[in-house]
């Protein structure tokens, strides 16, 4: 699929609250997600475990997300940016993060 057909979701600095909507995790054409500096809570979704999801950039820093970082699989190995800082996450990075071939920002 050509890049111009892919979707980007950016909603930084919008005072969003609640959990990350499950509908966002089902968008198979989603290329990047940026929800930086909001008031999102709850665990990180497992949307990157679907082999149909082709997200290349995930920016969820400066929220209030909790729990652990789920194992990553599927086409997410093409991720070049994953930012989760300034949340309330705990635990170790999953070993699958070490398999990212294109990661530039972690």
Helices and strands in order:
Elements: E1 7-10, E2 17-18, E3 30-34, E4 39-43, E5 57-59, E6 64-67, E7 81-83, E8 88-89
Parallel strand pairs: 1-3, 2-4, 3-5, 4-6, 5-7, 6-8
Descriptive account of the structure:
With about 110 residues, the protein is mainly beta. It has one domain (about 5-100): Ribonuclease Inhibitor (Leucine-rich repeat, LRR (right-handed beta-alpha superhelix)), CATH 3.80.10. It is about 0% helix and about 25% strand. It is built from no helices and eight strands. Strands 1-3-5-7 form a four-stranded parallel beta sheet, with no helix packed on it. A four-stranded parallel beta sheet has the order 2-4-6-8, with no helix packed on it. The relative contact order is 0.19.
Q: What descriptors fit this protein?
A:
single chain; 4-stranded parallel beta sheet; mainly beta; 106 residues
